[in-house]
Write a structure and sequence with these properties.
about 220 residues; globular
């Protein structure tokens, strides 16, 4: 009887792991699909990523991947690695449009704070402290992109952020072990992408309404 229960328990664990593996595969697929329209819009010149943010994203995501592997995240970390490679691609593609953009004092401040957080991460010897610092660093790296998106929401691809909400939700579910080390980064990414999707929608709608009212005002006066 006891042997039967052990076998049954192992079967249940194996089933859960297989489900998580499938979710991990789906997350990798969504990662690739979500970046396709974003990269396409960059090539067309429609989307103009902030190079400060994307340079830091690439570096940070590779570190997050290494921490997840160390924490035993299993296949759930594969999507993080694939994302890191795509982020590096976005960074290099964004260089061609950088001449048309300017880095503000706030952008430089966020960049400096992010570098400082990275230095603190290098000094930290505790894995959990490292995970917290690298997550904080990643959130700071969004600063220049958030600032740009507020005034120029049309320079970002909204679909990209919406799809990433689903992607990070799947990554979180597909993790084989849950701890601060493995889950903090994808949870923070899930939340920041929810914020970015909302910000872009609200700001683009507001700007469109303002332009429409301005157009109607000019038409009426003439």
């Amino acid at each position: 009887m006891e042997r039967y229960q052990i076998i049954q328990s192992r079967c249940k664990i194996s089933s859960v792991i297989n489900i998580k593996t499938v979710l991990g595969v789906v997350a990798v697929f969504i990662t690739i699909v979500s970046y396709f329209p974003y990269i396409l819009d960059i090539i067309k010149g429609k989307t103009k990523p902030h190079i400060y943010s994307w340079f830091l994203f690439g570096f940070i995501t590779l570190i997050a991947f290494a921490l997840q592997v160390r924490g035993g995240a299993g296949f759930g970390s594969t999507a993080t690695f694939v994302a890191a490679m795509l982020i590096v691609t976005v960074f290099f593609l964004s260089l061609k449009n950088w001449n048309n953009q300017t880095a503000t004092l706030m952008d430089k401040l966020f960049f400096g704070l992010t570098i400082l957080a990275l230095i603190l991460w290098l000094v930290a010897k505790q894995p959990i402290v490292s995970a917290i610092l690298i997550t904080l660093t990643n959130l700071l790296a969004y600063g220049p992109t958030i600032r740009k998106s507020w005034s120029q929401p049309h320079t970002e691809t909204q679909l990209f952020f919406r799809m990433n909400i689903l992607r990070f939700a799947l990554i979180i579910v597909s993790l084989e072990n849950y701890s601060i080390l493995t889950a903090l980064y994808p949870v923070s990414e899930f939340l920041i992408h929810c914020f970015m999707a909302g910000l872009l929608f609200v700001r683009s709608t507001k700007i469109k309404e303002t332009k429409l009212l301005s157009f109607k005002s000019v038409t009426t006066s003439s």
